[in-house]
Amino acid sequence: MTIFQAPKGTYDLIPPDSAKYLAVREAIAAPLRNSGYGYVETPGFENVELFARGVGESTDIVTKEMYAFETKGGDRLALRPEGTASVLRAALEANLHKSGNLPVKLWYSGSYYRYERPQKGRYRHFSQVGAEAIGAEDPALDTELIVLADQAYRSLGLSGFRILLNSLGDRECRPVYREALQGFLRGLDLDEDTRRRVDINPLRVLDDKRESVRKQLVGAPLLRDHLCDACKAYHEEVRELLTAASVPFEDDERLVRGLDYYTRTTFEFVHDGLGSQSAVGGGGRYDGLSEMIGGPALPSVGWALGVDRTVLALEAEGIALELPASTSVFAVPLGEEARRALFAVVTGLRRAGVAADFSYGGKGLKGAMKSANRSGARYALVAGERDLADGVLQLKDMESGEQAPVALDSAVEEIRARLA
Ligand code: AMP
């Protein structure tokens, strides 16, 4: 029988590489935890309508990429393609917005699903860490989120990324711009699909990557020239606060992003070492989303950073994370009596917070020492019958090869002290 393989567009995280993913998630979460964001976890699937209304009926995510299905009970659900709609739904459902303590600041980490054409950096099952600040309109809040993402990437040692920044306007000025853009786009030579997009979501046409479309977009009206005074002032404040925080950014008037809910501040983190899938993270303000999914007006802002692409960015920059050693002490028992004694010591070490492992399966000295080597342990703890008779264990430094006896009775304390 052939063995099963992971479905197309998915992959398994396996040691030792999997440790990098954990470290990246942790590094992204750390600045959030430190800035008033509380952890939120939502289901892996939701009512399909939440995404249709929230993310947008005309987006690729909803029309082409969503894993939607009907349950035996007749519910229409979808695997979550992104986090924001779910998190906002959860906050509304729990009435967090009525706590009198706005903004509600939440962070999350999880798996997301999009039926995309797989390639390096683009998967059907991928991992994001995200943050949402719900219920406040304040340029400092938009800035906070960008600064925290920048801090997260820098804490990992990354430097080859850029922050692209734009404003998408609000319900005042965007419709006026939309019409001007539609007028321009209708004069171009476009295929039927794109012409339909011009009617439903003309801003998205600006994001078209095809050269045949791109070259016609030169001279398209820019949202920048249509922003109302309030949006202009808001955007200017975000730019100034970012500058004051020493976070460099680039103005990108064509940045629109693939989700419909964004208003005003929109940003993307791109990494130049990643080829075509260069966006490592992105986000923005979504002042209208709450109302779109049936809630009250709750101006909000958030981002999601891709864990998979952040790991690729680390590899592109040749950064090896300093990961904590998974095992400090590896126990090698020689004989039945030593097995019991060492097992007790390993248990004691673990209870004392020392990472310890044990040679299982009755291996001989050679095989067990090989395991000790592979574990990356700092010390091997070896004992045979004679050692036990003398009331000692042999502690071998795996780097220098030096070996010294430690008293069985005080082994845990002594080893702990040496490691400290
Ligand atoms: P989005 O939710 O589309 O704004 O994406 C936010 C971030 O998630 C992107 O910048 C990517 O880093 C990551 N991402 C989105 N889609 C995928 C995917 N199919 N595979 C891997 N990472 C993804």
TrEMBL record:
Biological-process GO terms, alphabetical: histidyl-tRNA aminoacylation
One MF annotation (Gene Ontology) recorded for this entry: histidine-tRNA ligase activity
Keywords: Aminoacyl-tRNA synthetase, ATP-binding, Cytoplasm, Ligase, Nucleotide-binding, Protein biosynthesis
Top-level taxon of the source organism: Bacteria
Chief localization: cytoplasm
Aminoacyl-transfer RNA synthetases class-II family profile domain residues: 32-324
Reaction catalysed by this enzyme: tRNA(His) + L-histidine + ATP = L-histidyl-tRNA(His) + AMP + diphosphate + H(+)
Classification via Pfam families: HGTP_anticodon (PF03129), tRNA-synt_His (PF13393)
GTP-binding as UniProt keyword: no
Protein localization: Cytoplasm
Chain sites annotated for binding L-histidine: 82-84, 114, 128, 132, 257, 261-262
Oligomer status and interactors: Homodimer.
Protein name in the entry: Histidine--tRNA ligase
Source organism: Streptomyces spongiicola
Name of the coding gene: hisS
